[in-house]
Amino acid sequence: MWYFTITTTTLWSPLVLLLLLWSPPPSSASTFNHGETVKNLIRNLNLFPPHDINILANPNVVPTDKNNKIVEKPLRFPNFSGEGEGISLDDLAHRAGYYPLQHSHAAKMFYLFFESRINKKDPVVIWLTGGPGCSSELAVFYENGPFKIANNMSLVWNEFGWDKVSNLLYVDQPTGTGFSYSTDTRDIRHDEDGVSNDLYDFLQAFFAEHPEYAENDFFITGESYAGHYIPAFAARVHKGNKAKEGIHINLKGFAIGNGLTDPAIQYKAYSDYALDMGIIKQADYDRINKVMLPACELAIKLCGTDGKIACTTSYFVCNTIFNSIMSHAGDINYYDIRKKCEGSLCYDFSNMEKFLNQGSVRDALGVGDIDFVSCSSTVYQAMLVDWMRNLEVGIPALLEDGINMLIYAGEYDLICNWLGNSRWVHAMEWSGQNEFVASSEVPFTVDDSEAGLLKNYGPLSFLKVHDAGHMVPMDQPKASLEMLKRWTQGTLSRSGDDAEVLVAEL
Description:
- 39% of the residues lie in helices and 16% in strands.
- It is an alpha/beta fold.
- It has an eleven-stranded mixed sheet with strand order 1-2-3-7-4-8-9-12-15-14-13, with helices on both faces. It has a two-stranded antiparallel sheet with strand order 5-6.
- The protein starts with 13 loop residues before the first helix and ends with a helix.
């Protein structure tokens, strides 16, 4: 499936020439294989599931509505202990469902909804996992969902689940990710227009079905490649609200964790971060910056003017930087450089696969015989034309209209490191740029301990999280819950004690 063909009409493109320049030369015993180069590059940068994508001929799942309404069922996972939180699942609205995407040929988006354990008037928070093509169930069971999977395949409460302060929505997207599926290959998405329109249509259908949540504050969150999804989705919601397209969505803010948003700035930061953290030596740094970085910068510029082929090629040109760093790094986990990379996911998520493949769990979810695709390589490859595009460009307009943005990043992540994220946030031009740049870092404290460093001005906040890698809610669950709580309540910029006093006064 991993073939990269170069036609005679594209061979002389400057970007293709750059790709050829940085690709390894063929050995005397073999012919150069672009397909194998592509496969290796993608394997070095992403997660790989046992299955590829859910494009099915005759799926056996919950029936979907012909009028583009959601079809869902109450969700009650089997083997749930229910101990430790003093609350019964019978008192909470947990749901699993499918939405037939309005602007598709046959696509069905799978979602999970978990009502707040405290108050159903809490904000509605949607979570988008990145990849691109990785399922949000990764976050449900390993990061910020209500439950954790025990080794005996039972579920226990997550003490720091984000449903303690919000009503949580998780979606499997783009089409072909997780339990989302289609019967038509034309439904595979390639850009943020398709992604954001699908998500907007889903929200309209969800709030139409559940008007009791429609007036709640609404926040968009996610991590990694969601650094692309989230700004586009936020802009689409804001546009729909302004145009009064349907149900008004009470968008208050969006948060991106260890995301990829402005590739031109973030790829330039790779070598700086790697040198600072002792992953590469000065000679490696000098070679990358002298040889590889200029080619990447040119490739990204051409991506902005030369269309889809140029953008795809720029992905391969620029990722020679990352590949070069990893060739010196050995078997480190590029999501958390303090650890070794073990297995295809660099983490052991096997319990999730086992749990979701149980018949009783599949019955509870209503997914029929749909395979669970943890991370789809086909979705990943389809989005390569989108990878090097700059999604920062639409953010200033959102800030100017009072939509809050939080960028947070674990300090030990390499692949979407805090340094690159900090640089694009500081470089972004908006009316409060100078004041934000001039603002001082203040400690983000949790339980009287410094959990991170925060910069804030107006609607913009940047938080560097201590002792965390790519998946902050997994590495620092208590700090991430406190971060979400204070941010959605408008008290993130205050110290922990001041925030508690203010909330109590309110």
